[in-house]
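Below is how a single chain appears once it has passed through the pipeline. First comes the sequence as given, then the structure the pipeline wrote out for it. We keep one example in the README because the format questions we get most often are answered faster by looking than by reading.
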Amino acid sequence: MSDELVAREALKHFAEQIDLGEIVVRRASAEPDIRQDGSPVTRMMLVLKDPDGDTWGVEPLRELRTVLGRKAVELGLSGVSLTLLDESGPEAAEQFAER
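Resulting structure:
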C-alpha cells in the first residue's frame, strides 16, 4: 500500500470521527484529483447528519474545512476539496452503495 493511500485512508478515518455538534460526519471518502490549474487536491465526499434546519451553519462548515485541511497537510496530502451530502438524500445512498 502506498504512503499516499495510507494517508488518504487515515484522513477518511479521521473525518468519520468528526462531531462538531451541528455537523456530524457519517461517511467519508478521499480520492486524489487534479485541480483545473494542474495542482493536486484530495477530493473528499462527506455524508453529514441532516441539518437541523434547511442547511448547516457557515461557521461549523468553515471549522470542518479547516480541521480536514490541517489534517491533510499533517498527513502529507495536498489540500482538500469537500463535497457535502445530507444523510437522507438520494446522492448519499448512491455514492456509498458499493463501498
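The helical segments are 3-15, 58-74, 90-96.

See the next section for the split statistics.
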